[in-house]
Design goal:
GNAT_dom; alpha+beta; Acyl_CoA_acyltransferase; Aminopeptidase; acyltransferase activity, transferring groups other than amino-acyl groups; N-acetyltransferase; transferase
Length: 174
Amino acid sequence: MLNLKGEHIYLRALEPSDLDFLYDLENSTEIWEISGTTAPYSKHVLKLYLENAHRDIYDVKQLRLCICDQENFPVGLIDLFDFDPKNFRAGIGIVILKNENRNKGVGAEAIQLVCNYAFKTLNLRQLYANVMEGNNPSLHLFKKMGFEEVGLKKDWIFSEGKYKNEILFQKINT
């Protein structure tokens, strides 16, 4: 198995002990716009989700990993989604829960670890990311990590009473 440990963070599978962290993250209205969430999640529903989080990416077409700091504290999540082994691609998404953990290299390190895993272990040809226009920290992050802007989805997200564009990024494993 490829190493999912970086210099400052490591990635691990979700654990039952992550229930409170997941509850805080999924119910943070600050990220609902990017996650597509429209209503709060109960702890019961999230507990059921955690009980099934061990399922294989080839089965559920998604892999969600917890981003942990050096003190073993969860700070965010990184996902591979829409896993398509026939076409050797998947989407990638990341969220860091608290502002104090953002802009410190955590996201870049997590993306690098997942890209290595996706390209070397899953043998994917490409990863893509969808970033809302105006989400400058995420736009900067994906560009910095070698993702190329390849498209614009006009009026893709309806939020706060208006339509917003979403930018499509792609990273091809050469």
